[in-house]
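Model it.
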Amino acid sequence: MIEDALLEAEDKMGKAIEVAKDNFAGIRTGRVNPGLFSGVMVDYYGSPTPLQQLASFQTPEARTLLITPFDKSSMGAIESALRDSDLGANPSNDGTVIRVTMPELTAERRKEYIKLAHSQGEDAKVSIRHVRRAAKDTIDKLVKDGEVGEDEGTRGEKDLDALTRKYVETVDTLLKAKEAELSEV
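Modeled.
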């Protein structure tokens, strides 16, 4: 029973790590990547649609991204969604592809991105701690109801704490890597 609670906690903590990785991928570094545009929603025939479902991406240069819409009629909607996004992108349309040239990262902008990365890292840690609290409550309830012994409950809590430390350290490692990537000129 405790093993089930620990397995469920580990699964949820793993999902928190995946979300953190996705969030970190969405923070721009010196090189443009399609992951930056994962949060851009395009009004496609009246429904908000992720940009990745409407176009293919190519990166011919470090700061340039070519977006080729699958449906040419959606080009205007994609262009306006990019312009309205908070990425600082300035798209230009040549009739077949949309060329997005991202501005050079300034030192001030890099600091903002580092703050954003720290905020997202902290959100991931909070999520992991919430999972830990829920699993601990489950273990405490099992001990209280007499389904498992106190020694087994204590052992389960120690395992849960080790698991929590492992995942928090993983978030810290990802954060340090992203910070180093952002600091790189």
